[in-house]
Design goal:
The chain has 225 residues and is α/β, with parallel strands linked by helices. It contains 10 helices and 5 strands, in the order βαααααβαβαβαβαα.
């Protein structure tokens, strides 16, 4: 058996995880709220109501469902805010972390609900595309869950990585639910837009840093020996 057979493949989220964009996300959410005539909110409010799409998050903050027109307005304002600013950079130290993990026998991919073309262009422009076996973003309308995208992502990955363990690292409760629905081990990350207290309710150990998230993933793979 090859020495690295059980080294895991890590599926990373982008916004709120690898991308150092929490404050940009706060600005984008407040732009979406402003499009609905609502006052801005702070990071703590966003973290306690976090949802995987801008319309869903606005609805959670407002405590009511949005109309179809409001959903379109909120999503457009959110995406416009991002498009008018320079792309976010990686969380400091992340590129070195990913490279070290690759040298140890791990591999990486990105799965995000961000628009696919913009995501892949951003990663290519940063010069880090070679770190990932796959980069998959959203190709259709705004989505609320990674469950189905993760199923497709895993199916494509398995053509390359076979039966190696797969771990999903992300900053949302939806990441945990999507992983469990697809028989993938979840590692929630507390550095993003979901409050750590909410992540801890999932019953899965929460990582305080990306390095700790990777360590949790490797430990899980070792536990399968």
């Amino acid at each position: 058996m090859p020495r690295n057979f059980n080294r895991p493949h890590l599926v990373w989220g982008w916004r709120g995880t690898l991308a150092d964009d929490v404050q940009r996300q706060v600005g984008a959410v407040n732009a979406a709220l402003a499009s609905l005539g609502t006052e801005p909110v702070d990071l703590d409010t966003i973290r306690r109501h976090f949802a995987t799409s801008a319309p869903a998050l606005c609805a959670a903050i407002l405590g009511r469902a949005l109309t179809d027109r409001e959903r379109t307005q909120a999503n457009m304002a959110f995406e416009t805010f991002h498009s008018r600013r320079p792309p976010a950079q990686l969380v400091p130290g992340t590129e070195d972390l990913l490279a070290r993990l690759i040298r140890s026998g791990c591999s990486h991919s990105v799965l995000s609900l961000s628009a696919h073309n913009g995501l892949t262009r951003h990663i290519a422009d940063m010069g880090i595309a070679s770190l990932f076996l796959r980069v998959d973003g959203r190709t259709g309308p705004s989505a609320r869950s990674k469950r189905q995208p993760l199923a497709k992502h895993v199916a494509m990955l398995q053509r390359t990585i076979g039966n190696r363990p797969i771990v999903l690292i992300g900053d949302a409760v939806d990441d945990v639910r999507a992983a469990l629905a697809n028989q993938v081990h979840p590692v929630p990350y507390a550095g993003g837009l979901t409050h750590p207290d909410i992540l801890r309710r999932s019953g899965v150990p929460v990582a305080d840093s990306l390095a700790q998230a990777a360590a949790f993933a490797v430990a899980h793979a070792h536990s399968l020996n």
